[in-house]
From TrEMBL:
Molecular function as annotated in GO: calmodulin binding; DNA-binding transcription factor activity; sequence-specific DNA binding
Keywords (A to Z) from UniProt: Activator, DNA-binding, Nucleus, Transcription, Transcription regulation
Protein name per UniProt: Calmodulin-binding protein
InterPro entries associated with the record: Calmod_bind_C (IPR046829), Calmod_bind_M (IPR046830), Calmodulin_bind_N (IPR046831), CBP60 (IPR012416)
All copies of domain Calmodulin binding protein central, residue ranges: 173-239
Domain Calmodulin binding protein C-terminal residues, every copy: 244-287
Principal place of residence: nucleus
GO biological process assignments: regulation of salicylic acid biosynthetic process
Similarity comment: family membership: Belongs to the plant ACBP60 protein family.
Length: 288
């Protein structure tokens, strides 16, 4: 049997609290983490003193991790009863896997605990508020007869991971797969046409934009309207280049050369010891 918890002089003042904010948005199948990937810490506090309760049986009790309706009690300083808290618990939809999987219990040590691995199996679009909260309550068999106020996080949305897997990137990175660009659907016809021509990454795409834009337009074909093409180019051009440069020297003396960036745009000329940026060159120098 669990050790008896003794109600302190300020009886009913014990509260569980989340000390960390969640990293949002959350996706089904993804790990629930704190901001910047940090662990999510919880504490047992005496609300009369605002101090962590580090001794006594309550400081080492077990807690259940639960899912709550997003519209449960917006203010943290509001009080609620155990019955109110329990009436806002969310279970999985009929015929679905448990809504939350992973380490569904936490053990406090000297009044402090850390959430383990947790994953949502379903999105939050089907409940009234369209949002969930995580909650913590004392596990059965611990500190019975004593009121320990449950903890809850802020309300958050859980989205289907498909959205994450297929998301466009803003801005796109050079080594992103080409379907991260607007108007190129993953495994769609444009994606397949580009792949067939050896254009797998955003960098491959941008290089062809510079070298032979018409060829690229022809690869994508008439299925892509001019409006889509403009949107695709605009998105691709927001890509941050890597700062790599290529220099082509005209002869072995390496006296004069042409400088290109990593998507083969003309960057400038090297002549003797001097560098001339592309925007300072006349048209005849560029042709030469």
């Amino acid at each position: 049997s669990s050790p008896k918890c003794l109600e302190g002089p300020g009886g009913g003042s014990l509260q569980l609290r989340f000390r960390s904010r969640l990293s949002l948005p959350l996706y089904t199948g993804g790990k629930v983490e704190g901001e910047q990937g940090a662990a999510i810490h919880i504490v047992l506090v005496d609300s009369n003193t605002a101090h962590v309760v580090t001794t006594g049986p309550e400081a080492s009790m077990k807690l259940d991790v639960v899912v709550l309706e997003g519209d449960f009690s917006n203010e943290d300083d509001e009080d609620w009863t155990q019955e109110e808290f329990d009436s806002h618990l969310v279970k999985e939809r009929p015929g679905k896997r448990p809504l939350l999987t992973g380490d569904l219990q936490v053990t406090l040590k000297e009044g402090v605990g850390t959430l383990g691995d947790l994953t949502f199996t379903d999105n939050s679009s089907w409940i009234r508020s369209r949002k969930f909260r995580l909650g913590l309550k004392v596990a059965s068999g611990y500190c019975e007869g004593i009121r320990v106020r449950e903890a809850k996080t802020e309300a958050f949305t859980v989205k289907d991971h498909r959205g994450e897997l297929y998301k466009k990137h803003y801005p796109p990175a050079l080594n992103d797969e080409v379907w991260r660009l607007e108007k190129i659907g993953k495994d769609g016809s444009f994606h397949k046409r580009l792949s067939a021509e050896g254009i797998f990454t955003v960098e491959d795409f941008l290089r062809l934009v510079v070298r032979d834009q018409q060829k690229l337009r022809n690869i994508l074909g008439s299925g892509m309207s001019n409006k889509m093409w403009e949107a695709l180019l605009d998105h691709a051009k927001t890509c941050v280049l890597s700062g790599k440069f290529y220099v082509y020297y005209t002869d072995d003396s390496r006296n004069s050369g042409v400088v290109f960036n990593n998507i083969y745009e003309l960057n400038g000329l090297i002549s003797g010891e001097q560098y001339f940026p592309a925007d300072s060159l006349s048209d005849s120098q560029k042709v030469g």
